[in-house]
Design brief:
227 residues, mainly alpha
Amino acid sequence: MVKSSTPIWVLLFSFMFGFEKPRVRLVAIIGLMVAGVILTVEGETKFDMIGFLLVLVAAIVSGLRWNLTQLLLQQDRLGMDNPIATLYHLSPIMFVTMMFLSLVFENPIDQFRESEHFDSIFHVLESFGLMAIGGFLALAMTLAELYLIKSTNTVTLSVAGISKEIVIITLSVIFFGDVLTPKNLLGLFVSILGIIWYNYYKLTKAKQVENAQYQMIPMHTSSKLED
């Protein structure tokens, strides 16, 4: 449930970086969606303080990360205004960081030796094939996220993330037989209402900007030409 607070941190950092102006309606929309997601995934019975703090820090850092990404995408002078260029520069840093953490905490070499997924050539090819497919999908998703941030903003990305959570929950019910309680269904309904409200908010805001630009167009009066 703590992870569901990520859109709140995204919104707060958007206010701090000046990407969004503080508006009560926007805060209410994000709060409604977060409340819906919390109700949807509600059901945890065991609380662990260390886990809580780790997930909370991860949610805060996630909000900061996406806003810094938007900041990079807006810096034309750095040559990172293109999502592909941004990913090109950031990927090596992310790879080295994740590889270091994996070697320190997961000890992947010993796991490869003992894992049944790497005990034969067929299993090795199968495992690497599945990882390649997952890597390709992750790359496509990351590029889509960067293009979405470039075209809109991080708040819209967080709303899209909530939509993704709803799709995942729905698929888990359909394919894996997960059971949702009435409270979970209420949360699902509230989240959908929040998404609809956000889209209506963005549409209304876009129309207001369009009308303001139209009113700024100077009106030229026709004058008679004298011979």
